[in-house]
Amino acid sequence: MADVDVGKLSYAELVALKTKLEQEIVGKREEELKVLADGYAKKLIAAGFGIEEGIKALLPYTEAKRRGTATPSTSTARVLYRDPANPENTWSGRGQPARWLSQYVSQGRQREEFRVES
């Protein structure tokens, strides 16, 4: 991997690099998720299980993630912030900041970096 001295880049070059990195991150995420899903499917089939059985076996893990909310959100608030590493992670700017956004801020990043352009 080539090291880039970001301190020597102009603002425009940094923004272009950021955009390219965000696109690469999304692409790699999808690619790696597909590889993992394919491997999981092959293991299920080799063990004599169906894909749907495997998905049902994963449900407790997804339910644990949702615990703490009595009902799913039905809000139609406009998305103001999006996680470049996982575009499914969004925040409308209402209520407490999303965990993913709070983690980025605690790492020294600015909230406005994640603002969706309108």
From TrEMBL:
InterPro entries: H-NS_C_dom (IPR027444), H-NS_C_dom_sf (IPR037150). It comes from the Bacteria. Coiled coil: none annotated. Gene3D superfamilies: Histone-like protein H-NS, C-terminal domain. Residues 81-116 form the DNA-binding protein H-NS-like C-terminal domain. Pfam families: Histone_HNS. This is H-NS histone family protein.
